[in-house]
From TrEMBL, chains A, B:
InterPro entries: BetI_C, Homeodomain-like_sf, HTH_TetR, Tet_transcr_reg_TetR-rel_C_sf. This is Transcriptional regulator, TetR family. Residues 32-51 bind DNA. It comes from Streptomyces venezuelae (strain ATCC 10712 / CBS 650.69 / DSM 40230 / JCM 4526 / NBRC 13096 / PD 04745). Transmembrane segments: none annotated. PANTHER family: HTH-TYPE TRANSCRIPTIONAL REGULATOR YJDC (PTHR47506:SF1), TRANSCRIPTIONAL REGULATORY PROTEIN (PTHR47506). GO terms for molecular function: DNA binding. Residues 9-69 form the HTH tetR-type domain.
Length: 209, 209
């Protein structure tokens, strides 16, 4: 019946919200059936109607992370080329409390993912897609003359992802030293360095027509 | 008596080695008293003579990680300037099986460290020291004319650490795509981009005398 269904859906939402809070505070190492039950004020037995095993709880946590990442607000992408790349990388950095919580859960998930062949393969695939999603915008940047004509764009995409993920980690551990303006300035410097031709003395060839 | 003492020390060594193996295979999420006891073929009760609590086991794991990192073999540092920076960053990357196991444990420890204020502060301090350890070599590089005279060297140290740690993560998840030669080439390109003056058109001022 509709009301009961609504209650059930609302309760599922509550459970998910609590799982997310426990994750954001305590990480995967602190995500236990008991911790979630305590945070909800219910018994572990009651929670096991939702998650019969620890594994089911971890799977739900990873699904939540995917879902919240996919549904996160993103910046408008107004222009082609490096400006778009910049915005896509800004969307990854921990610049707001919500972004910070999500990044904390991502970084925490690496411990679990590295220990499980299927999860590791899924993560590798995700990073391959992220690099691939940058590529058309790097190509546009090259065609616009924003990047050297001979730049290795796949390599540049990999470097941009590496730089951004490493900056996420430093900013999570030391938010006072890496506030929004520092993270943004570091990203802008990284992109500026990509614009420069390979040697300062010899200008890069003109961009392809 | 000496023999008994030797046995005890040898047994401690065995316990540490097993803790390290479990960590490298299963991460912090898989590091339990039961998993270590099973891997050693002893009872959990027996293992609790070494680690009375899960917390004691985690603390030992973090100590092991510090110790093995401090004692790892490092490359010779033959020259001043960027060549030294390069070697220091190569020493971080997962280029050998031992380096890979240690990096896997480091990345896995972030989940735990981010959830604990003291551990997070210790980690932030460690990264501050790492950036500071690069600084004199970046200054030497600037004085040698390898870097633009006006480069922000603290910022560059932070970018170098971010890039290197992010590359560690990508290489751990996708070792086939990031073998030694790709990691090394990416690092060399990162350092080459730091050498370039801020704009291609305007050459950097001459290095300070």
């Amino acid at each position: 019946m509709p009301p009961a269904r609504g209650d059930r859906a609302a309760r599922r939402e509550d459970v998910s919200e609590t799982v997310w809070q426990v994750l954001a505070d305590k990480g995967f190492g602190g995500l236990t059936l008991r911790a979630v039950a305590t945070a909800m004020g219910v018994s572990t037995g009651m929670l096991m109607h939702y998650f019969p095993t620890k594994r089911a709880l971890l799977t739900h946590a990873l699904d939540l992370l995917e879902k919240r990442t996919a549904e996160r607000p993103r910046r408008a992408r107004p222009t082609e080329g490096l400006a778009t790349v910049r915005v896509m990388l800004l969307d990854i950095l921990p610049l707001t409390p919500g972004d910070t919580a999500r990044n904390r859960v991502w970084v925490g998930s690496w411990d679990l993912s590295l220990a499980d062949d299927d999860l590791a393969a899924a993560q590798a695939e995700r990073y391959t897609r992220l690099r691939a999603s940058l590529l058309p915008h790097l190509e546009a940047a090259r065609d616009l003359g924003e990047l050297p004509a001979l730049a290795d764009l796949e390599r540049l995409a990999a470097s941009a992802v590496a730089f951004t993920h490493g900056l996420v980690v430093q900013a999570l551990f030391d938010p006072a030293r890496f506030p929004e303006e520092v993270q943004t300035a570091m990203l802008d410097e990284f992109l500026a360095s990509a614009r420069r031709p390979a040697t300062a003395a010899a200008p890069a060839p003109a961009p392809a027509p």
